[in-house]
Design a protein that fits this description.
The complex is a heterodimer of chains A (about 575) and B (about 230).
Chain A (H helix, E strand, L loop, with lengths): L16 H8 L5 H8 L3 H10 L2 E4 L7 H7 L5 E5 L19 H10 L5 E5 L5 H10 L5 E5 L2 E4 H10 L5 E5 L2 E3 L18 E3 L9 H10 L5 E3 L6 H10 L5 E3 L9 H12 L6 E3 L13 H4 L4 E3 L8 H8 L6 E5 L3 H11 L5 E5 L15 H10 L5 E6 L4 H10 L5 E6 L14 H10 L5 E3 L6 H10 L5 E5 L5 H9 L6 E5 L5 H6 L1 H6 L2 E10 H10 L3 E6 L16 E9 L12 E3 L1
Parallel strand pairs in A: 1-2, 2-3, 3-4, 4-6, 5-7, 6-8, 8-9, 9-10, 10-11, 11-12, 12-13, 13-14, 14-15, 15-16, 16-17, 17-18, 18-19, 19-20
Antiparallel strand pairs in A: 20-22, 21-22, 21-23
Chain B lengths: L15 E3 L2 E3 L30 H8 L19 H10 L38 H7 L4 E6 L6 E4 L6 H11 L28 E5 L5 E3 L5 H7 L2 E5 L1
Parallel strand pairs in B: 3-7
Antiparallel strand pairs in B: 1-2, 3-4, 5-6, 5-7
Classes of the chains: A alpha/beta (about 575), B alpha+beta (about 230).
Subunit structure (chain B): Homodimers and heterodimers.
Function (chain B): Aux/IAA proteins are short-lived transcriptional factors that function as repressors of early auxin response genes at low auxin concentrations.
Family (chain B): Belongs to the Aux/IAA family.
Chain lengths: ~575, ~230
């Protein structure tokens, strides 16, 4: 900054706050805003007062009232609760992550709140009622993987939120009270833009739904539940041809040419359709009804569609503009090679197991070949989730060479500790190749037979890695030590069934404070080690989680008692007070 | 839940080596019975090599089981059913032979065959509860074939039509003797009266307890009301 010429301009550090607030509005990333706020008090003041969007990735990292006080102008808030492994049943149901304190604090401090998202939290009907009555301009409610509420709570939302634009219910567990929540939208209400009730199990009143869809001309996203038959899906589409994202209801019916014609005609009218999901129990007979929209699709989620064979492949091969494909392993290697040659713009691929627990004979549908083909032919591919039964180091090395642009690589070999099925070696070499080649890798999940060697590579090379998931891997504490002493950007680490003990944790205790959270279950941790960690790091909450019903107080246990489940996270708020009996904070 | 339902005690089978691995078949026909002492056999290959589990091999081969002698035990006396399987915990050479298709012990990861008293792995494979509800706890119904001692279970939620179901049944009960269900590689199509491509006659017990011919009602109604299936010769 040079000397000001002419009339004295204020020095930059005494410019009014409004100028900085305007400047900060050009920083979309929260991390950048946070960094700016650290520069000086002036910037801190300006930034926090102008923050409109707040994401709280761990609801226990701060007291809700402190968050609301610090950022008084927030219009959109997202709060996440339970750790990721809660999705797989590893957390006791009463663990916590209650939304109520957040809703109460928001109702007090953010009267102009427009958007609220909760992920993996316990949301009650009272919370929903409070939301409906506290925010006069409430527009967007997103609940993802939550539980604790019923359709009665939804009825409060649909009745009370006059300006509601989006109601997105994704993979929640909702008790059906047969409350007519859908009917509670007033007849004059027309502002709905997105409605997702795919996780609801019960029936909805179809006439009411049809009327709603007819009068909401801005409806862009509609995701139905499994209870809506194909015939009705077609009728709805006729009323909403402007739709961009559709989740079909049940997509199977005995073949009937009339119904087929109706479905086909309905889809033909949806020229804006870009994203398709749902399709539970899709049968091959009706897939051709979709053909007319294939060309326009950018996202296709067939991961609940247990359809296989040539019909599936023919259908996907027509979707030449796909960016995102989620599918079951019933697509098989052959299907993926067709995807490789047809979907050249593909960015994200997820392949889910059709028979994860081996109930139907443990047939192998998919091998490493499919992933090798797709990674070789899809230059934009950067995110993969792949469940399969076998892998080789050679395949992983080839994948790493072909696709150094991976940002997210998650491989789940169904059988724990599976080695390279040809050489019988551990998969260290393969995963090392992935982290060495993919310099931008942000998320990695590993499986199969892995020794401490692979962790050396990861610690040394995975500089951008933010989230790492390990299962049945490693030989000793050295492995964990390599991860914690390397991986500069690590935020979340989740580990199960690995032979890691207290030593590596204690040696790298300071690292844990730079991370958001650490989860470990079925490792070799001890009560004493956890106590030492808690003593050493007062800003960490160290939770020992037992199975419900086992409430032996930690203080009375000997030093070397094993710890089955550990959850460690940094927090400004001190230890939480809402723990159930089976959780103890040391 | 018990690993072996009570009536499985009548069908204690022995594994015999087979050129391609391990096989067993269900039968209590007298022509197959070699010995009236039914004991438990150990697998030929140790499971630590991460081979496909024994149950997988068994299922992929079919269900050919023959009775035979077991290795002598240290006490030199006959073992009862309970003893034979309690020994599994101490001497890990016994196998879970009867798997009724439900979860828990059948597929709990490498080493599960040997340590068959270990509880199933929680949360593995890492699929969300919504997905595992959709796939694993789907509608499993028992299927019996007339004349076959061992039944199977089929997951109706993996099928969307009669054609798919009949194809799966044909695969589970391949044609081996005259008059039995079977199929070549061509698709099996239901033509509305319960018959499949090669003379399958499939009946089902509905919610009222009546035995009906498969194929008369729309698939969804069938899938909701079926309690179990029976294939007639």
């Amino acid at each position: 900054m040079g000397r000001a010429a002419g009339p004295a301009a204020p020095p930059w550090h005494s410019l009014p706050d409004e100028v900085w607030e305007h400047a900060f509005s050009f920083l979309p990333a929260d991390a950048d805003r946070g960094a700016a706020a650290c520069a000086c008090h002036g910037w801190l003041r300006a930034e926090r007062r102008s923050r409109r969007r707040l994401v709280v990735p761990n609801c226990y990292a701060t007291d809700p009232r402190d968050a609301v006080d610090r950022f008084p102008s927030v219009r959109a808030a997202e709060v996440k609760g339970k750790p990721h492994f809660a999705d797989f049943g590893l957390l006791p149901p009463s663990w916590g992550a209650y939304a109520a304190p957040w809703v109460a604090a928001a109702a007090d401090g953010w009267p102009l709140l427009e958007e609220l998202s909760f992920k993996r939290m316990f949301v009650t009907d009272e919370c929903l009622e409070m939301i409906a009555s506290s925010f006069r301009n409430f527009q967007v409610l997103r609940l993802n993987s939550c539980e604790g509420f019923t359709t009665a709570g939804l009825a409060a939302i649909t009745e009370g939120c006059r300006n509601l634009k989006e109601l997105d219910l994704q993979e929640n567990y909702i008790d059906d009270c047969s409350s007519h929540w859908l009917s509670n939208f007033p007849e004059c209400y027309t502002s709905l833009e997105a409605l997702n009730f795919s996780c609801l199990h019960g029936e909805v009143n179809f006439t009411v739904l049809e009327r709603l869809v007819s009068r909401c001309r801005n409806l862009k996203t509609l995701k139905l539940n499994n209870a809506i038959p194909l015939d009705n899906v077609a009728s709805l589409l006729r009323k909403a041809p402007q739709i961009i994202e559709l989740g079909t209801g049940k997509f199977s019916a005995d073949y009937h040419p009339d119904l087929f014609a109706k479905v086909e005609a309905a889809f033909a009218g949806c020229t804006s359709l870009r994203r398709l999901s749902g399709t539970w129990d899709a049968v091959p007979d009706y897939l051709p009804a979709f053909y007319c929209v294939c060309e326009g699709l950018t996202s296709l989620n067939l991961s609940y569609a247990t359809v296989q064979g040539p019909e599936l492949i023919k259908f996907i091969s027509r979707c030449k503009n796909l960016l995102q494909l989620w599918v079951m392993d019933l697509i098989e290697d052959h299907g993926l090679s067709v995807v490789a040659s047809s979907c050249s713009k593909l960015q994200e691929l997820r392949v889910f197991p059709s028979d994860p627990f081996g109930h139907n004979g443990g047939q192998v549908f998919l091998t490493e070949r499919g992933l090798v083909d797709v990674s070789a032919s899809c230059p934009k591919l950067e995110s993969v989730l792949y469940f399969c039964s076998r892998m080789t180091n050679e395949a992983l090395v080839m994948i790493a060479k072909n696709r150094p642009n991976f940002t997210c690589f998650r491989l789940a070999l169904l059988e724990p500790r599976s080695p390279d099925y040809i050489t019988r070696q551990p998969l260290d070499a393969g995963f090392s190749a992935i982290v060495e080649s993919c310099k931008g890798l942000r998320r990695l999940s590993m499986s199969g037979l892995l020794t401490d060697l692979v962790f050396k590579s990861i610690g040394a090379h995975a500089d951008r890695l933010e989230m790492l998931s390990l299962a049945f891997a490693g030989d000793s504490d050295l492995g964990l030590n390599d991860i914690l002493s390397g991986c500069k950007s690590l935020k979340k680490l989740e580990i199960r069934d690995c032979p890691f003990g207290d030593k590596a944790l204690l040696a790298n205790a300071a690292k844990l404070e730079t991370m958001r959270s650490l989860w470990m279950n079925s490792c070799s941790l001890t009560v004493g080690g956890c106590r030492l960690l808690a003593l050493k790091m007062p800003h960490l909450t160290v939770e020992i989680i037992n199975d419900p019903g086992e409430t032996c107080p930690v203080e009375s246990l000997p030093f070397d008692s094993p710890v089955e489940k550990l959850y460690v996270y940094r927090t400004l708020a001190g230890p939480r007070s809402d723990t159930p009996d089976c959780v103890q904070i040391v | 839940m018990p690993i072996f339902p009570a009536d499985a005690r009548r069908y204690i089978y022995v594994l015999r080596t087979h050129p391609t691995g391990i096989s067993f078949s269900p039968t209590h026909d007298s022509r197959h019975r070699r010995s009236s002492n039914v004991k438990v056999f150990s697998p030929v290959r140790p499971v630590q090599e991460s081979q496909p589990t024994v149950i997988d091999t068994i299922r992929s081969i079919g269900m050919e089981l023959e009775l035979g002698l077991a290795p002598p035990n240290s006490t030199g006396r006959k073992r009862g059913f309970g003893e034979a399987f309690e020994e599994a915990a101490a001497a890990p050479t016994t196998l879970p032979l009867f798997d009724d298709g439900s979860s828990s012990s059948s597929n709990s990861g490498g080493g599960s065959i040997i340590k068959n008293k270990k509880p199933a792995l929680v949360g593995w494979p890492p699929v969300s509860s919504a997905r595992s509800r959709a796939s694993s706890s789907g509608r499993h119904v028992k299927v019996r074939k007339e004349g076959a001692a061992i039944g199977r279970k089929v997951d109706l939620s993996l099928h969307g039509s009669y054609g798919g179901l009949l194809a799966t049944l044909a695969r589970m009960f391949p044609a081996d003797q005259a008059g039995c269900v079977g199929t070549s590689d061509e698709e099996v199509v239901a033509d509305g009266d319960g018959r499949g491509g090669a003379g399958l006659v499939v009946t089902y017990e509905d919610a009222d307890g009546d035995w009906m011919l498969v194929g008369d009602v729309p698939w969804e109604d069938f899938a909701r009301s079926v309690k179990r299936l029976k294939i007639l010769l």
